[in-house]
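From the shared-data thread, chain only:
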Amino acid sequence: MPELPEVQTVVTTLSSHVVGKKIRKVLHVRRDMITPDGFDFAAAIKGRTIESLTRRGKRIVFALDDANRFFIHLGMSGKLTAESAKAPILPHTHLIVDLGQSRQLRFRDPRRFGEIRWLGPTVGDEKMGPEPLVMRASQLAAKLKKTKRAIKNALMDQNVIAGLGNIYVDESLFAAGINPLTLASDLDEDAIRRLTKSIKSTLRRAIRHRGSTLRDYVDANGAAGRFKRLHRVYGRKGEPCAKCKTPIERIVLGGRSTCFCPRCQPL
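Structure, as tokens:
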């Protein structure tokens, strides 16, 4: 699933194509991808101008000129691209928006775990945790002291911290030297400071390299991310640790594959 660096890259590469553009018409929309159920999404956005495009967690948030908002969540396999109106329409394309000048916004999602959610004038993120790139260590500490879950599971919770997923939790825990099985509530002040710093540095490096393409992810121009080659633990079971050469181990935690170095990240 695309995480914060991938979603931020989509926002960055898509903005120049859509911000300031008027939505001429909605050429196609799959209604069962829309929340709330039965909402006339096409009618709500037709004729409106896209004023801004931002990211909140893993959501791509569109703000319109009438103060309404909606977001697109890419799910497992979603792609949000700006394309020529003459480009072939691929299977599983669930939204096509005409922006004029022969340009279209297209949302394609073969596995259909994605979502288009109408927010109206609300922000709609009241239950989401802080943004990790601007999060303070004290904010993270306040969230973690409330849970007895393993730190890996806690960081995957979007109510604890917004935007993280399997890849960047594993990479951040490695950079901080924290075992994924460690209870979140057991982390001391120093460990939380290290973790906050490692989350930020890991995400910033990933954004510079335009995210990680494992299979489906591409940016708004159809280009793959380059950060996969810089993964230090994720997806590297049995390979030598970049720091100590100990083989990387893999366990299943919370139903998700979890990779770590048993020497650099002792329990």
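The first strand starts at residue 25 and ends at 29.
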